[in-house]
Specification:
Layout (H helix, E strand, L loop, with lengths): L2 E6 L5 E6 L1 H5 L4 E5 L2 E5 L5 H7 L7 E5 L2 E3 L14 E6 L5
Parallel strand pairs: 3-7
Antiparallel strand pairs: 1-2, 3-4, 5-6, 5-7
Length: 95
């Protein structure tokens, strides 16, 4: 079985790649649903850790886990569990 995912390359860009889940399961054993897509993260990963992995730290975003907004001040302590449904939304300003 092959899944698609995003991988960071040097610089600010990302490449869409195909990979076998078994390649990552040992390193990233916890499966969550991230913006509607299955995603593996390290055991004990927090919302802040996932944002770091996605290179989204410091951006204006909102994080929702299982339908509940996670306050920005709790990203570090909010540990993700298997099966959690995580939605990350960029805040957009304007008028």
């Amino acid at each position: 079985m092959v899944r698609r995912g995003w991988i960071r390359r040097p610089g600010p860009d990302y490449d869409r790649v195909e990979f076998s889940p078994s390649d990552f399961v040992a390193q990233f054993p916890v499966e969550i649903v991230l913006n509607g897509e299955p995603c593996h993260v390290p055991a004990g990963a927090s919302a802040a850790h996932v944002l770091e992995l996605l290179v989204l730290g410091g951006r204006r975003i909102a994080v929702e886990v299982n339908g509940e907004i996670v306050p920005r001040g709790r990203y570090v302590e909010h540990e993700l569990k298997p099966g959690d449904r995580v939605e990350i939304v960029h805040a957009v300003g304007g008028g």
